[in-house]
Amino acid sequence: KKTSIKDIAREASVSISTVSHVINKTKYVTDNTKERVSKAIKKLNYRPDIIARGLRTKSTRTIGVLLPDIAQPFFAQVLKGIEEAARIRNYTLIMGCTFYDIDEEERQMNSMLDQSIDGLMFFCGYDTYEHIKRVYDSNVPIVVLDRELSDNEIPSVLIDNVLAMEKAVQYLYDIGHREIGYITFPYENQTTIRRRYEGYCRALRKNKLPYNPDFVIIDDQLRLDELKGTYVAIKKKIEEQKIPTAIITLADFLALGAMKALKEFGYRIPEDISIMGFNNEIICAFSDPTLTTVKQPKKLMGETAANLLLDIIEGKKIENKNIILQTEIIERSSTEPPGKNKGVYKKK
């Protein structure tokens, strides 16, 4: 027989409502009573029936999070912020990885909705959002995170990707670079990627620098393996002797892959070529040389998105449902002003 809340109340010599308040944290209960109820729960191995509780309270206190790949450090660090904010407010996460597959995202979305979640978070992903709009229009609370949509009615937490990349290129220009390359995934169906590319191009135009396609790598293979993919792509550019004085990348792991290839071919970083990343992953402070990068407030991004979603779920007044967070440049050892040997092919 499955243990019920009545069994817990009987074991702890308290009322059923007191047990409910302890479990759901809905009313003050003395520490002594809490301890008795907690001991009874442990002794009888009680597990709340989430679905049944949801039918009674119209809330399961669970939220769904759909993201492309939990193995990527950026996603993991943002997810940590989401989880901490949810836990503080007594919510539980259900997570699904979509691997940039829209059909899989929609499948997992429907599965989570079938589990009576209270709200849903869409983290990163492609521009296609008809399924997201459909859920929003059905009055399910949702927030999109690091995923810029054309519909501003849908709540979102983002950075200004155009401005962030423009400032990064401007930093390289200001320290003297005039040949600035760029490495990215294809951007046709992903606004975040496209906006960063637009920021790169806008900074070139602003400083009257030519766009040189020889200095730009746009390759979908990089998405599958950022380190190895960039390593292979840069080796090809080196063999073609098409290396600028500085390279900035869509994300930090692209920069690290580029650095490995360049160093193997005898390039000194930053003496021969400056390298700059984007995101400020933890490894940036431990690479050789340490990586100059653009810092995204990853944990804050997760906390902000989670609290926005939970405020919507709980019916709180929302002052701003489209939140833009600030970025900053973290200057380390992989960049410096250009010297005489910049852009010269020098294999060991």
Question: In short, what is this structure?
Answer:
With 348 residues, the chain is an alpha/beta fold. It has helices at residues 5-12, 16-24, 31-43, 50-57, 73-88, 102-114, 130-137, 161-174, 191-206, 221-224, 226-239, 252-264, 298-313; strands spanning 62-67, 92-97, 119-123, 142-145, 156-159, 180-184, 216-218, 246-249, 274-276, 293-295, 322-325, 328-330. The termini are far apart.
Please provide a written account of the structure:
- There is one protein chain.
- The protein is of the alpha/beta class and 348 residues long.
- The protein has three domains: 5-48, lambda repressor-like DNA-binding domains (434 Repressor (Amino-terminal Domain)), CATH 1.10.260.40; 60-154 and 297-326, 3-Layer(aba) Sandwich (Rossmann fold), CATH 3.40.50.2300; 161-292, Response regulator (Rossmann fold, 3-Layer(aba) Sandwich), CATH 3.40.50.2300.
- 44% of the residues lie in helices and 14% in strands.
- It contains 13 helices and twelve strands.
- Strands 2-1-3-4-5-11 form a six-stranded parallel beta sheet, with helices on both faces.
- Helix 1 packs across helix 2, helix 1 crosses helix 3 and helix 8 (161-174) runs parallel beside helix 9 (191-206).
- It is elongated and about 80 Å long.
Q: What characteristics describe this protein?
A:
3 domains, 434 Repressor (Amino-terminal Domain), Rossmann fold, about 45% helix, alpha/beta, about 350 residues
